[in-house]
Amino acid sequence: MARKKEIKKNRKKQTKKKPYRSALSNAVWSFQGICREAPMAFMLMIFEVPVKTALTYASISLPALTVAEVIGNETFSHAMLHIGMVILFMFTAKALLLFSGSLSRHGLWTVYRYQKSFALDRKSMECFYQIYEKKQIHDLYDRASAATQMWNGCQPITDMPRHSLKLAENILSYCLFGSIISVVSPWLVPILTLAPAVNWLCARAYRKWEYDNRKKWSDLDRKLQYVSNKPSDFAAAKDIRIYGMAKWFGETFAMLSRQREAWDEKIAWRTFLSQIADLAVILIRDGAAYAMLIHMTLTGEITVDKFVLYFSAISMFATFVGNIMKEWNNIHAASLKLCDYREYIDLPELKGTGEASIDSMLSGMPEIRFEHVSFRYEGSSKDTLHNISFTIKAGEKIALVGRNGAGKTTLVKLLCGLYQPTDGDIKINGISVDKFSRKDYYRLFSPVFQEIKTTFFSLAENVSGQPCQKTDKFRAEQCMRLAGLGDKIDTLPQGADTKLDKQVHKDGIELSGGELQKLMLARALYKDAPVLVLDEPTAALDPIAENNIYQQYHNFTKAKTSLFISHRLASTQFCDRILYLKDGAVTEEGTHDELIALDGEYSELYEKQSCWYREDYGY
Predict the structure, then answer these.
(1) 375, 384 Cβ separation under 8 angstroms
(2) What mean pLDDT is reported for the chain?
(3) How far is Cα 545 from Cα 539, in angstroms, rounded to an integer?
(4) Which of the listed residues 186, 415, 449, 608 has the most CB atoms within 10 Å of its CB?
């Protein structure tokens, strides 16, 4: 029972978590961004505030002026002159507002939103990998991305400044119209002002409920999107058909949809209750004000034209009070969405100090030293790697082997700067990796990871990682041929310029798993970094292609320090030294012959696989 109470208490603490930034902070941040990235949009917004206020005043003055001209026995020309001047002003003001609004909506605001969207994507590409791969960070990205998208007329990234200036506009109108109404009765202003407080409290309660529960439906939306997109994923099409997964996807989608519908019903009900409260307040507020005004007219306290003026002013004043509350709520609603955006943008970079220069190492063969390195994944009860120490000498070719789950890929990610050690240090030529700029540090490595990801650009662009105009096509093709893609290129009419992904390009192609692995190897060769890291580079290759890769391994690693990971121990014979990893620690170290003579786990594993080597390679 005590345990349940503690869990419930912790959940309440999580739901009561304060927003990442205050509404004022988000407003200042928004205006700073607009002034910097879209100054014309900011100027137009400022311009619209006094123009809209003056236009509103003219719209309530026109009926009163017309009545005054009619009952004042003025000439027709006199009436038309005064009324015409007001109409001309209103026409000019509306034309200017239409022009300003069109320019802002279809040009300036779009540019600003695209810039903010790109900033979000740039953050995703630059965010420290160890942080970026967490599920909660991907959920945060989904919420942050929603701040840049248009949904039901709302777009938080631009709503914050627009609602802020609308608030200023309504406050200005409130002061102007309040001074008019106070002539009728000084009590009208506080009565018409205080009544909407009920609406504000209702809206505030709904907004808080929505913010406290947003993570629940954002997680549901993410799952729904995944289940919706997966059936159309070309890579999954074969499995879905052959294994009869369509029904499974359908049932999962239906289940998630029901859960989302339950939340939608709660949202709709709470919205309805807040709107009912709003209608009740309007009825009481406006009814009392209009009754007072009618009584004053019938008793002769005010003239007909003044009645028209005050009647319109009270109607508009009530609108301004409501709008002030509405815009205040809109500002806070937009602010909560901006909190997600800014929290994502502010994720730590871990860029490194930049004290040391990487330039002198790019043309040499660096030495790599692990000093008592440990690493533990967040939430895990034990280290994945524990107290590892070893040195890869300059130009040395090291094989890292071990069973699944030994920690080989984690070690590679630590080496490449994608993870940060929990304890210990990694040094390049005696310099701690933390002293290098993170972007510069990445220049040291040409890795080929197990996970293969390509883009829909040309083969050459996929190899260079650069746009067409910055790609050395001759060099890219040479690297592809060196990696074993020469025969494939020769069969393609456009050669290295052939586009990938036939779902995007009508003349695009799809590469096999082995061909994709060769393409990634070509990318590593093209980069030509001083440290080559091959994480299972031949897993998808047939034995003949794998043997060809091994035969060229010495050419690939010439004048480089290299680390080679493989489950197939035949590859280790091409390396200078072997590190055998078990349970996150290096348990055996030496050459292939030395470890065979040691008769340890490496020797045992090699013996189990030896029948494959003899058959495939003639050993």
Answers:
(1) yes
(2) 81
(3) 11
(4) 415
